[in-house]
Here is the input.
Amino acid sequence: MTGKELILKAMNNEELPRVPWVPYTGVQIGQLTGYNATELLQDGEKLYKSLIEAEKQYSPDGMPVIFDLQVEAEVLGCELKWADDSPPTVSAHPLASEAVVPTKMPGKKDGRIPMILDVMKRFRAAAPDTALYGLSCGPFTLASHLRSTNLFMDMYDNPEYVSALLEYCTDVFLTMADYYIEAGMDIVAPVDPLISQISPDAFEQFMSKPYKRLFDALRDKGVKSSFFVCGDATKNLEVMCKVGPDCLGIDENIDLAAAKEITDRHNVVISGNIQLTVVMLLGNQRDAMKAALEKIDSIGKRNFILAPGCDMPFNTPVENVIGVAQAAQDPEAARKLVEGYVKEETDIEVDMPDYAALDHVLIEVLTIDSATCAACGYMKSAADDMVSEFGDKVEILERKITEPENIARLGKLGVANLPTIVINGEVKFISVIPNREELKKAVSAVL
Here is the structure.
């Protein structure tokens, strides 16, 4: 059975001979060919060469062609900030000062779209036995790219506008979906990390109708779908299943076994959720193998696709990804390699601030990495806005868990989910982006 057949059978809720494996290959594959993230995401030939090498080394059953949630935003007028070790981030929002609904749809010749479509077609021909994923920015995150964090206040102050903007962003997604299906993609997936930042009631009010329309349309077009979310979206899993995706992709903030109980009730496949930082980035090959085997053993072969929690950080060691592939495709051999293995614990010294002695408000934003995680980026932006409100009375520090000492810092602060805002040592906003007024109130209370 080919990897593509395995993935499609999984999406049809069939019992499988083994668990399928999908590495969320984003900019990390540039390591295989010596290209940085900016080169990879702007040069079709470099992207294609990297995909070919990843397909050869990672033995995937399925894989995305590109993992960049800013492609549509760039075409629609957002300014991007580029980096060598991560996808670009949105640095300017065209609707930030004006609550209007655009009418422009992305065209096949706009921005980087022609490059992406060309690579998709070429890679489709080169990897006929691999299930290819066409990822596109989900409606809520795209609306945030366009409107900025103002969108969260709009949900209270101007709900009719939010609904209209989300309908437009759904149309954008379906336009991109048509291009990707034509280019040969087997699975089309909205990636909507900011869904974790709203309540189930807000999801039902603003997102149920757009997403039901989106997944119904993909089903009518004859392709499978996967709904990607980041952060602790546990509260929203039920309502997400109800809108009809074939698969839910979740990250490490969510208990996979508990989430699968929910997805199984709706006969939705679940995909995830090997830890990106602790295991994939900072662990070794046996750590990666062991983590993969634990997922396989606890979840089983039905309605499950093994994957990292999200697209892998640029510096994720190649051998760790290969280790997960080996565990998925030959679990018994992998068990022998990790038999008796115990990860060595390291006691990392952490220099914690003396919160009681501070003469200002210290806002610590604990993130996966604001450059790669959209929810983290918008939480960091919300915190940065406080400088314009309070000047030098506040200090903003990002604590990325890509740095080992910050993993230890999470434990000292008692933080289990990301992103989270801590104010003068007190955990205030856990995996929920506060609107400007909420954060101002929290800072003013400390002042």
User: Anything to note?
Assistant: DSSP finds 18 helices and 13 strands in the chain. The two ends are 63 Å apart (CA to CA). Residues 159-182 form the longest helix (24 residues).
